[in-house]
Amino acid sequence: MKSNRLTVNLAGLKLANPTMLASGILGYSAETLEGIVAGGAGAVITKSVGLKPRAGYANPTVVQVDCGLINAMGLPNPGIDEFVKEIRQAKKVLNVPLVVSVYGFSEEEYAAVSKKAADTGADALELNVSCPHVKETGSEIGQKPETLSKVIKKVKAAVDKPVFVKLSPNVTSIADIAEAAAKAGADALTAINTVKAMAIDPETSMPILGNKLGGLSGSAIKPIAVRCVYDIYERVKVPIIGCGGIANWRDAVEFFLAGASAVQIGTAIATKGSSVFRAVSRGIDAYLKRKGFKNVGEIVGLSHRC
Ligand code: SIN
User: Fold this and answer.
1) What superfamily in CATH does domain 8-305 come from?
2) Which residues form the pocket of ligand 1, taking CB atoms under 6 Å from any ligand atom?
3) For FRET with 110, which of 19, 136, 188, 206 sits at 20 to 30 Å CA-CA?
4) For position 5, what pLDDT does the model report?
């Protein structure tokens, strides 16, 4: 939908509305991304891609629990050299910004993958420094401020596109990590990735996921994510992208009031389909109109007044 109330300039990216596809279960094929844009997303983020192809973990990789999903896919991906074909195709068919999610096992890998993605046409990068269960990448990098800073600086030196950094809630102080990321040059911070979790089957007495441990997403983590956005907003001036359990316009507005400039939606697509983006945008627009705001930017961080 088109409405001046919904437009956002996110670290230089122009979004027609503040809803974005979260990096996650979807997002390797240009065709899937096209379907998400048809559902109303203002931008899309791919699933994370690394330097080399990775098979990921054995099944089951996703389990449904109360109020959410636990997933541990193990960062399966075709590797950046194969994935550039999808980036090229996506750029031909999408009329919204394309953000490529990147992971690596070293600062050099993050930079090399980011550069290939940016050179192929990615409008921005989102660094996955928060996957909660793959060893030597993800949160093993994002939990260590010094290592995180080195990764961000290396990527920033390699690309001239905005660099978003997706943070983990599985830390003592997300504000400390956000500050390190901002000082290293992050253009925006995504909060949050999944919460470390597991589920056990009483019949087999065994963990359900192939990897045993996974990451919880969906409405169960929304209050955690809102708190993280709130904490980060108090500490840094970098734009924040809220992520975690957003399924309707009220959820999205809560994130804006906490300090987010845009929101990502992932797990809700499983139950609501891709039209959830349009429904959320319509609801935000109606809320802004009813409250007399001219643009969504006017409500970012409003809950911090007292
Ligand atoms: C996965 O591929 O297992 C999930 C990645 C993530 O949580 O960042």
Assistant:
1) Aldolase class I (3.20.20.70)
2) 48, 71-75, 128, 131, 138, 193-194, 215
3) 19
4) 98
